[in-house]
Amino acid sequence: MRIDRSFLGWGIFFVVAGAVPLAVQNGVLPTASVERWWSVWPLILIGAGLGLILVRTPFDGLGGLLVAATFGLMVGGAAASGGFGSIGDFPSAVCGPGDGGTTFASQRGTLGAQAEVDIELDCGDLTIGMTTTGEWSVDGRSEDGTPPQVETDPSSLAIRPGDDGPSVLDRRVEWDVRLPTTSALDLELDMNAGRLTADLAGAQLGVVTLDLNAGSASLQLGQVADIDGFELGVNAGSLTVGLPAVTMTGSIEANAGSVTLCAPEGVALRLHTGDSVLSSQDFASAGLVENGDVWETPGYDTAVTRIELRTEANAGSFQLDPEEGCS
């Protein structure tokens, strides 16, 4: 018998995803053992690393199989324990409790008319807001008072963990970042095992990029002054996005995660689901009309304000305009 390797990963995924809830139903595995299904996410990184190390060897497919099995384990665990709702608790479970810590010295400065902002945080809580003072600032706490590394000039601002800053399994840090509304900003955010709360009211934005791994994020764009677009990715996490009231394009990809979207009144949507696998969405109940793999607001082509997004999910879900909103 010859095994088609192009389908082997999918086979492993489906076998594991089905075996986990079956084992729980038959008492082989206790429910408590799969309730923290998202805690196996580091295996995805290990699998990716193995794929790079073993490339061009007889074992070059081993990393991909580990990734497929991990996604299967996470999906099976989610199905057996009640879905993706518990993802938001991930940062607290993997990182320390974040109980206090030491306040580090405030850092602040100015940016030019246009600038790139790059923020990277592992194992922490990041709050981003806007200010009309014309200055950026970074305040917060860490276990030993270590501040983040800040590199800046008139056209850029980079904020990253300090040399002795936290990593996964350490205590969480807390950063409060304020950005100036007087600068047009390209914003790049990288969050690992973290929690992001960003209210960008008044911001002049180019492209916003978010890479969220094993965490939760709330990105409020409803009151931005302008935005060109965004590219958002969530892996084993949950993302809430308040969409802007301006015409734009963008993309959101969820892998073993959930995405909630809220659109302002009067904004027409066109959402491309593409090659989503094992995904769910409620676009029909939100009033969108399906045409192939595209869902759109009736009258989209003649609407004054239009947002077109690629919304793809692999073992994930999209929810549009829930009753509780996106705040």
List keywords for this structure.
single chain, 327 residues, alpha/beta, 2 domains, 11-stranded mixed beta sheet, 41% strand, globular
Account of the 3D structure:
This protein has 327 residues and is an alpha/beta fold. The protein has 2 domains: 78 residues; 219 residues. It contains 4 helices and 22 strands. Strands 1, 2, 4, 5, 8, 10, 12, 14, 16, 18 and 22 form an 11-stranded mixed sheet that branches. The chain has an 11-stranded mixed sheet with strand order 6-7-3-9-11-13-15-21-17-20-19, with no helix packed on it. The longest helix is centred in the N-terminal third of the chain and has 21 residues. It is globular and about 60 Å long. The termini are far apart.
